[in-house]
Amino acid sequence: MKDNIYINYGKNPIKMTNDLMEKAKVSKYLKSDMKVIIKPNLVLPSSTKNGATTHSEIVEGIIKYLQTQNITDISIAEGAWVGEKTTTEAFKVCGYTDLSKRYDINLIDTKKEETIDYEIENIRFRVSKIFQETDYLINVPVLKGHCQTKLTNCLKNLKGCIPDKDKRYYHNIGLHKPIALLNTLLKPDLHIIDSICGDLTFEEGGNPIESNRILLGYDGLLLDSYCSRLIAYNPEEIEYITYSAKYNVGKLFDEHTKIIELNKSNKDNKDFIKSELAKELERYVDENSACSPCYAGLIFALNKAENNPKDSLNNNNEKNNNENEKNNNKIRIGQGFKGQTNDEDLGIGDCCKNFSKYVKGCPPSGLDILNYLNSFEFD
Ligand code: SF4
Question: Which ligand 1 atom sits closest to the C-alpha of 338?
Fold first, then answer.
């Protein structure tokens, strides 16, 4: 069970989180007298809608679940990006100040906490003492792109547990190795991933891609190596994943990993919001009632595609518009294509299984879509 990955789809984060925790039988590992810390990603004071920060509703779902287990010693701890007041502001803007009042929960700014010093491979680590003193640590990152490390998710979210000075220091010496080593010092007991609308490329948000999905697992490396695929990265491309495997932080995702999906029919979220960058990339796509996680995988893949179907399709569109003819070689996605046959276009997902060329999956991962795009000869 601890090697499984659980995914829930939908638009009710409180219930989705509770259902995931029940399905994964989290209560087996809890005791009522435990001291529990929840660590979200509040990198900056920015609304969760922008794709950078953890939805407070997920943390609310966790608190409710913990309270049903009669756990009362619950804290939310975070150290936002560099700056004296950023954490307090982020707590406020992202709904955590209100949440803490409603549930009588402590809010801890890790920047103000005492640290414990370590040194591994000549790298200095100072970790907030509270994390070492807790009985149960729940990591609640946002699955999103990152301008330097490509992916930010479970493993990188622990950077919020160290002082500002060390955040700068890690950036200077290259982030990957310190992130992996930090995960040998701090080992969350549980990870619940906010994949509701993580950003396409940037940890500070701005181009959120709606996926309406929450994931749960017990192994941060397993989850990161799985989730990198969802946003169109091969895990080998993410250096800190390779380092983490070397330092035995956890297991890597492979074909034996069991994926347990809840509410599969809730993937169908037709009225999802599309960011400006997504709209730009979508110009070359024919979308008809696509589910949000499927569409998100395609947008992540299009943003990274080497063959640049964008240019090819753009040329076709211009040509075809001029000639008032049917467009050729489009990328088609969505339930509107169920049952349709097509020998010209590339279909995305099992809804297009009657196309002669389509990417399998429901939804397919961003990496599967990317690999197909890169091998597809666009006319
Ligand atoms: S393949 Fe079809 S049903 Fe499945 S996620 Fe994609 S659009 Fe939705």
Answer: 2
